[in-house]
Amino acid sequence: MLERRKFIRIPESSQISYEILSELKAKDYLTRDISQGGIRFFVHEFIRRNSILKIKLTLTKTTFYFEALTKVVWIQEDTLSERYEVGVEFVDIPPNATAHLIDYIRGVLKFNPQQ
Questions:
Q1: CB neighbours of residue 108 within 10 Å
Q2: What is the dihedral of CA 73, 69, 7, 97, to 10 degrees?
């Protein structure tokens, strides 16, 4: 099967907070996976596709965290858990955060090559 992803994605369970900019209320969850281009995580509320989220992400295996703007590119209901799985892409991320994220992903892949 041909891989369609633009960036390598690694499983990651890091603390993430998000705020829907039009609602101004923050929520905290854990990520499912992460790539240079975006993040996948579960939430307990429906978020409209194309919504802009301000996120704060703390990478589990480091003390590094960053804030970025993301856009919801897909959302899918998980009927078994009454949650929604959300995929967001970065639309505004600090350059140092991008560099750190790339190094972090490379480090995880180096120690877990089956990812």
A1: 19
A2: -170
- The whole model's pTM is what? 0.80
Question: Which residue type does 43 have?
Answer: V
Please report, for the chain, the start and end positions of each structural domain, with discontinuous segments joined by +.
10-111
Per-residue 3-state assignment (H helix, E strand, C coil) for the chain: CCCCCCCCEEECCCEEEEEECCCCCEEEEEEEEEECCEEEEEECCCCCCCCEEEEEEECCCCCCEEEEEEEEEEEEEECCCCEEEEEEEEEECCHHHHHHHHHHHHHHHHHCCCC
Residues β-bridged to residue 83: 78
**CATH number for the segment(s) 10-111:** 2.40.10.220
Q: Which residues contact 34 (CB under 8 A, 6 or more apart)?
A: 9, 10, 12, 14, 40, 57, 101, 105
pLDDT tens-place string over residues 25-77 = 788 888 999 999 999 999 999 999 999 999 999 888 788 889 999 999 999 99
